[in-house]
Amino acid sequence: MQTYSSDKNTSACDRLLEAGRHLFLHQEYQRVSIRRIAERAGVNSAMIAYYYGDKSGLYRAVLLSYLEPVKAHVLASLKRFPEMSFADLFRNYYRFAPRELIHLVVKSALFAPDNQRQWLIETVLRPLLRQVEQQLDQSLPEGNIHRPEQARLVLQSLLVAPLLLQPILESVGKTTMDDAYFDDLADYIGTLLDRAFQQPYEQRIPTESSD
């Protein structure tokens, strides 16, 4: 088992965070014990209580260690919108967002205890989505979003699904989803969204031809 006890330049707090990242990413929350975290970090288990309170506190710190940089990056990008295109917005996100964050968020939503899932939704995801929506509302032309709830779901899916499903898509499609692939995907998504928002909604609905 890999530990970090030999790295004297890394604090116990950081070693615990790194150990938590590895264990929570590769195992279900319930199967990760305080003892295993401490062993991997090479520290006394009492250090978890000292720095993070308990296992749930470390788990939240792990999520935030991934999420905070992404949040800052996304909000900074949105402030440059609409000067930057939809394609640039998605390209920057795909390049910056760590795959580990997507997997941890999904695992938390599906398998973490109710209190952890509630914390993730109420304290982290909902405020972030609200900030994103407010920024988009300020940037997009008024009245051009039809059925905003569905539009929000589509945007969230385009942001999350390609990164989350990357291993499966690569296996099934026999395609390497590298940076070039995600750049092309961002360009394609950008083209679709640009066309959607440039036209009034009525012009995007095909009309039935009369007999």
Descriptive notes:
The chain is an all-alpha fold and 211 residues long. It folds into 2 domains: 1-53, Arc Repressor Mutant, subunit A (Orthogonal Bundle), CATH 1.10.10.60; 63-200. Helices cover 73% and strands 0% of the residues. The chain contains 11 helices and no strands. Helix 4 (55-79) runs antiparallel to helix 5. It is elongated and about 60 Å long. Residues 1-9 and 201-207 have low confidence and may be disordered.
Q: What layout of secondary structure does this protein have?
A:
Blueprint: H1 12-26, H2 34-41, H3 46-52, H4 55-79, H5 86-96, H6 99-111, H7 114-139, H8 148-164, H9 166-173, H10 179-198, H11 201-204
Tell me briefly what this model is:
Keywords: DNA-binding. By secondary structure, the protein is mainly alpha-helical. The chain is built from 11 helices and no strands.
Oligomer: single chain
Whole-angstrom Rg = 21 Å
User: Helicity, in percent?
Assistant: over 70%
- How is the main sheet built? none
Secondary-structure-derived class: mainly alpha
- Calculate the mean pLDDT score and round it: 80
Shape: elongated
Give the tags.
11 helices, disordered N terminus, single chain, elongated, 73% helix, 211 residues
